[in-house]
Design brief:
The strands form 2 sheets. Strands 3-4-5-2-1-6 form a 6-stranded antiparallel beta sheet. A 6-stranded mixed beta sheet has the order 10-9-8-7-12-11. 7% of the residues lie in helices and 47% in strands. It has 180 residues and is mainly β. A hairpin with a 2-residue loop joins strand 8 and strand 9.
């Protein structure tokens, strides 16, 4: 990691490079942010991790195609260069995130939260949040393995980011069904 870059684990994911686009080194991004126009604009600085190192990248061009950003990245000039980036996450320092309204949260804020049922039974700790804004799920590491819980208001009845706690009211059998 270069001096002055934030630590990878202390940054928030804002997208993932899907694939190369065209023959001039552009890439299509699957956004994971509510503010794609802000994050993927010409001049924006993003970070990616490859070959074990965190790299700052600069967006040189940006447009949207079917609600997905198509961006140019400084130093990425060919289709081969762009194809090598497929699958990489794009992140920003957490302190650069926009403040959210009361009761809202960023997905990365949920990682590390303890999950318990309404009756107080421990389910485990959130390891990851998968999916998109339209269909996200909590990946919870528990004593009996991994459990996937839909991030839906009727199931996740209390989300207390400050208290690092999520209370769930899962439908019968959900916790046992998807343990793996």
């Amino acid at each position: 990691m270069k001096e002055g870059h934030p630590a990878w684990d202390e940054m928030a994911t804002v997208g993932r490079i899907a694939r190369a686009h065209g023959n001039r080194g552009q890439v299509i991004v699957n956004p994971e942010t509510d503010f794609p126009e802000r994050r993927f604009r010409a001049g924006a600085e993003l970070f990616m991790e490859r070959r074990g190192a965190v790299e700052a990248i600069r967006v040189t061009s940006a447009r949207f195609q079917h609600e997905r950003p198509v961006i140019g990245i400084a130093g990425i000039e060919t289709m081969d260069d762009a194809e090598a980036l497929a699958g990489l996450e794009l992140r920003v320092p957490a302190e650069s995130l926009a403040p959210l309204p009361l009761g809202s949260f960023y997905r990365h804020d949920l990682v590390g939260c303890k999950v318990e049922t309404r009756s107080g039974k421990s389910v485990g700790v959130v390891q990851e949040v998968e999916g998109t804004a339209g269909g996200s799920r909590l990946i919870v590491g528990g004593a009996r393995g991994e459990v996937q819980i839909p991030l839906a208001m009727d199931i996740c009845t209390t989300i207390d980011v400050a208290g690092r706690r999520i209370v769930v009211d899962p439908p019968e059998g959900l916790l046992e069904l998807n343990e793996r």
